[in-house]
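lol forgot to send this yesterday, sorry. struct tokens for the thing we talked abt
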């Protein structure tokens, strides 16, 4: 273990849904033969979700797994428009997302 390596990671969201999807994502990466080698590496990946809401993060991970990607790209989530508020934080609004597609993602 590296001197600078972390002892544990801090998830950006506390829900069981996110924990379950994140564990599935780590298994996906392991299956692709590219697991996170250190906790620091895993934490840096989790930090990419800063400024995104939990639903967007879960959608991003599920989409990446569905396409067999080794990485995820939260800024490229389809059908989501990003708006910066006065406080410099992101808000989101879904554009063109039907209720059926939202329900399908929740059930996935």
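and heres what i got for the seq, position by position
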């Amino acid at each position: 273990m590296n001197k600078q390596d972390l002892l544990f990671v801090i998830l950006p969201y506390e829900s069981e849904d996110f924990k379950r999807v994140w564990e599935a994502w780590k298994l996906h990466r392991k299956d692709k033969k590219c697991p996170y080698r250190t906790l620091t590496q895993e934490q840096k990946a989790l930090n990419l979700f800063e400024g995104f809401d939990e639903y967007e993060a879960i959608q991003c991970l599920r989409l990446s797994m569905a396409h067999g990607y080794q990485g995820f790209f939260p800024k490229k989530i389809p059908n989501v428009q990003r708006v910066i508020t006065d406080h410099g934080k992101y808000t989101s609004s879904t554009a063109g997302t039907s209720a059926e597609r939202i329900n399908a993602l929740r059930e996935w």
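Residues 16-107 form one domain. anyway ping me if u want another try
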